[in-house]
Amino acid sequence: MTTLLSLPPPSSSSSSSHCFSTAFSSCHQPSVVVTTGRPTRFLPVAATTTTTHHHQQIDKSSLTVAEAAEEDQLWAAACLRVRSFYDFQLSSYGIQDHKRYLAEREFVALKERIAGKREDFKRVSCINATLPLSQLSSSASDLCAACKFTSNGEDRVVVGTLDLNQCLWLPEEIAGTKPEGIEAEYRRAYLSNVCVARELHRNGLGYDIVAKSKIVAEKWGITDLYVHVAVDNEPAKNLYLKSGFIHENDEPAWQARFLDRPRRILLWIGFPCTNES
């Protein structure tokens, strides 16, 4: 694994809530502080929490949904993923150091995927939804501290994120079947790491980042887009079905047991190739 020579400021995150998909990462989860899952190459789907959160309504006129390239925005996205895909015991010793470690691992892995340094990934893009810091209320102070970056002199916050992966399959996941033949290597893609800050649920941000990913995928010449989701993750399934995805396949029960995780289903959407970069 590449060693970071300099790192962005540490994050300050807290326990997680529902996320929209299984997340692909290089992160591992020491069980001393993480309450879900086991050591694996994939972040777990975050568990349902009994905590009631205030959901701030936002002004979408200031929302930006775009591909991210700058390192500080990628770092903010990595921090959002850690606070979304893990449940933490906040009283555990060294919790902040562990959160930073997880964010660093995801940050490095994300940069490597985008740079084309990961085998079997032809192209990867990180798509973020961001808002000006000034638009977020005091109830989102933890989010602002963890996921802030600066763009053109303005402080902004990553409030939603996903990866678009052009590849034949994601490691440890069932593969799509469309298209067939040599075209599959160039025309198939998957969504991963799909999450929205819990403080801003019910604002349609999940639909916004998925819609942007479809635009980028068509620009790449992708004809078949896939996403994996846990069978019991109803909010995620609703999001994807309302976004046009349909069921294609189910993960075998034995595979889910072997990987010690909830069983996945594979959803698909197709669109014609009208432009290729």
TrEMBL record:
Gene3D superfamilies membership: 3.40.630.30
InterPro entries: Acyl_CoA_acyltransferase (IPR016181), GNAT_dom (IPR000182)
Protein name (database record): N-acetyltransferase domain-containing protein
N-acetyltransferase domain span: 105-264
SUPFAM superfamilies found in the cross-reference section: Acyl-CoA N-acyltransferases (Nat)
